Amino acid sequence: MKILVCISHVPDTTSKINFTDDNTQFDTNGVQFVINPNDEFGLTRAMWFKEKQNASVDVVTVGGAEVEPTLRKALAIGADQAIRVDTPAVDGYAVAKELADVVKNGGYDLVIAGRESIDYNGGMVPGMVAAMTGSSFVNTCISLEIDGDTATATREIDGGKETVKASLPLVIGGQKGLVEESDLRIPNMRGIMMARKKPLDVKASVGASTETSTVSFEKPAPKGEVTLVDADNLDKLIDLLHNEAKAI
Amino acid sequence: MSVLVYTESENGAFKKTAYEVASYAKGIADMLGTDVAAISFNATDAGELGTYGVSKLHNVKESKLDKFNAGAYADAISQAAKAEDAKVIVISSSADSKYLGSLLSVHLDAGYVSNVVALPSSADPFTVKRSVFTNKAFSNTQISTDRKLVGLSKNAYGLKENPTDCTVADFAPSLNGDDFKVEVQSVDKATDKVTIADAEIVVSAGRGMKGPENWGMIEELADVLGAATACSKPVSDMGWRPHGEHVGQTGKPVASNLYIAIGISGAIQHLAGINSSKVKVVINTDPEAPFFKAADYGVVGDAFEVVPALIEKLKAFKAANA
Ligand SMILES: Cc1cc2nc3c(=O)[nH]c(=O)nc-3n(C[C@H](O)[C@H](O)[C@H](O)COP(=O)(O)OP(=O)(O)OC[C@H]3O[C@@H](n4cnc5c(N)ncnc54)[C@H](O)[C@@H]3O)c2cc1C
Asked: What value of ipTM does the predicted structure carry?
C-alpha cells in the first residue's frame, strides 16, 4: 500500500497572531512553525501501517523552501521520502490542485490529510483532493483500518460517531483520535540522522490557479474588563446573565 | 438566477442553523436583487423557511439519503444549483456542511470560503469576512470564480425575519454509484443529549475538577441549563471525558451563546476554540488564571463550593421564571 501524508506547515499553537504590510501579510517574526496537529495524528497512523502492514509512506507539502524543516521532521519521524511542491500555499483550491497532481502521478492508495490546518482553518483541501482524484472521502476521521482495498473508518459526528466502509483509493481528513496522543512520535537522534539522507524531492508547481485571495486581515476588537461576582453572591451572577447578557 | 441555500434537517425537521443560513442567504439575495431558493433532504414540510426569506424549497425525497452522505448530498446540491443557475450557494460551517462543502466546490467550480462571519462587504468583487487562525483573527477574502460557495459560521449572523411565501417542490437529482462510495455501517449517538455543536449553552470543565468522579455536578449544572457538557484537552487525554467533548484549537470549536468554564486555566489553545461564543463565564480558584482576561463574568472561588450553590440558585430561578 502506498500512502501519502499531506503535511501543513503552521504556526505553533501558542503563536501570537500579527500582520504586516498594512495588514495584508501574516507576520512570521518570532513564530515557530510545526507540523499541523491534525496531520501529526495522521502521520503517526501512517507509521503504524508502515510497520504493521508494510506500507510505504511519503509526505508532501506545498510551499517555499521555508517548509523544508517541517518535512525533515516528518522524515525523522519515519516517512520514507518527502515531496515539496515549489509554490506558495495561497489558497485551498490551488493547494488541492497541486496535491491532486502528486496523488495522480504517485499512484497512492491512501491519502491522509488533516481535517483542517490550524492557520486558515478552511477545512477544504482533503475533500477537494478527493473530488479532483475521484477518490472516496471520509472527514473528521478518528479511526482507520485497511484490509486489502477496503477501508473501515470511524468519523466523529455531532454528539457521537459513525462507522463507514469505503473502497480505496481513499482520502481522509484526520484528527485527534486517529492514534492516542501518547503514541505521537517525537524525532529521536537516529531518526534525525537518517532523515538527512532521505530523498526530499522538489517538484515544480503545475501552476494551479487560485479561486480566493485575502484582501486584508483584521484582529478582533479588544475585549472589555471582566465583571467579577462574589462567590457568596451568585444571585448577582444569575441576574447579570438574565438581564444584562440575556444569556439565560 | 437565485441564491441557493442548503438547509440542514434532522428527522424531517429543520435545524436552527437552517434558519440562520436562510436569513443570511436572504441578506445576500437582497444585495444581488434576487430571491432565495433552498434545498433540503427529506424535510417533512417547509417549516419556517418562508419566515426567514426563502421563496422556494427543493425537497429531495429519497430514503437512501435519510442519513447524511457527503458525496450524494454534494452531487444533489450541485444539480439544484445548476437548475437554479445559482451564482451564490450558502451552506453552514457545521461539521457535516464542511464535509460536503469541499466536494460541492469542485463539482461546481465554485470558489469556497468557510467560517464566514458577516454579509459580503462588497458583491463585486465578492468579498466576505471569515475567521482564521482559530478565531484569533479575520481575513477579508475575495472569491474570483463565477459561482461562489459561502460557509456561514454558527451564530455569526443570527435569525432575521423576512416573511415570504415559500413553495415546496420535489427535487429528484440523478444519483449514481459513485455518490455512495462511502457507506455508513453504524451510527453511535447519544440522542437524548444536547450536542456541543447545537447547544445554546455549554458547561465546560477542566483539570481543576480533580477527577472524573466529580463530573456529576457539571452534568447537573448542564441539565438545569439545558446545556451540553464539554472539557479541556488534558481532561479528555486522561480519559476523564470522551474525546468528542474536548474543546479548543485541536478539539471542537464552540459558538454558543453562553460558555461556562469551570476549573479551566484559559490556555491560548483552549481560548482559540471558544472565541466565537458570545458570553463567557469563568469559575476558578486562581484570580490570576488567564481565562479571566477573556471572560465577561467571573467568580473567583472553589468549584466544589460554587457549582453546587449555583445549581440550587438556578433551580430556584428556573422555578420562579417558568
Ligand atoms: C499542540 C497543543 C494543542 C492544544 N490544544 C488544546 C485544545 O484544543 N484545548 C485545550 O483545552 N487545551 C489544548 N492544549 C493544552 C493547553 O495548553 C492547556 O494545557 C490546557 O487547556 C489546560 O487545561 P486545564 O485548564 O483544564 O488544566 P490546568 O492548566 O491544569 O488548569 C486547571 C485550572 O483549574 C483551576 N482550579 C484548580 N482547582 C480548582 C477548583 N477547586 N475550583 C476552581 N478552579 C480550580 C486552576 O486554578 C487552573 O486554572 C493544547 C496544547 C498543545 C501543546
From this structure: 0.95
